[in-house]
């Protein structure tokens, strides 16, 4: 972002959430004391965080007793200098068991792309209901963003959400070259084992080992056909980008 561009806290907050697959989970102990641990996290289509937690873990026992919790996401940016250089956002809310297939698929696409994830008897999926957020995106850029502004609206997009698995699996299974072109030729990112990890009304999520990316749609997509048309247009654009100028 240049110095002349207006800062958009919602876009910055969403980008920070999508930039990492880990977060610091803070729960409350039996005596009310805070307890923080590192967890792997995925995001549902509306950006609600999803975790795969062991029943034996202290944080899970805390959540079963008191579902109130917070999650701290830190974007890359402070690895080689100031550790506070990366954007960061704290989500607050409640966390409860989740068993619906769309939520479980989202975690699998993000963290178990091979699908070879053996069931673990003492692990279950948990999703946060977000009630508030606190974004720190640099000096003087501190914003409280309400959930209705932060989360992606899925209203009117039932057809797309019902077909999300078909889109993602089809793209990953049959069009890995197109996904790689999205990342490298359209977004200017390094080559890697890029795959699609989600598709919502506002765009598609991509990931490669150690990296994430967002491919935003020009217009909101409410149906499978509309999302498919956008992805095909991106593929054509990427193919043209690789051709030498006449």
TrEMBL record:
Pfam families: DUF2470, PNPOx_N. Residues 165-231 form the DUF2470 domain. It comes from the Bacteria. Residues 13-111 form the Pyridoxamine 5'-phosphate oxidase N-terminal domain. GO terms for cellular component: cytoplasm. This is DUF2470 domain-containing protein. It comes from Prosthecomicrobium pneumaticum. The lineage of its organism: Bacteria, Pseudomonadati, Pseudomonadota, Alphaproteobacteria, Hyphomicrobiales.
